[in-house]
Design goal:
27% helix, alpha+beta, 2 strands, Copper chaperone, 2 helices, globular
Length: 55
């Protein structure tokens, strides 16, 4: 997933706090604002989905 997210324009860094069998957190840092749909598409392409969690 990190490679797929990093391949998006403007992405500078991707961190994953992996929780096996639970909810993992992905943090994406970018030079400019990213389109939410682009981030969702990258995560989906990697075979994962976003969870609705408080920020």
């Amino acid at each position: 997933m990190i490679a797929i997210c990093r391949s998006r324009d403007g992405v500078q860094q991707v961190n994953v706090d992996l929780v096996a069998g639970g909810v993992s957190r992905v943090t994406v840092a970018s030079a400019t604002a990213l389109e939410h749909t682009a981030v969702v598409a990258a995560i989906d392409e990697a075979g994962y989905r976003l969870a609705d969690l408080p920020r």
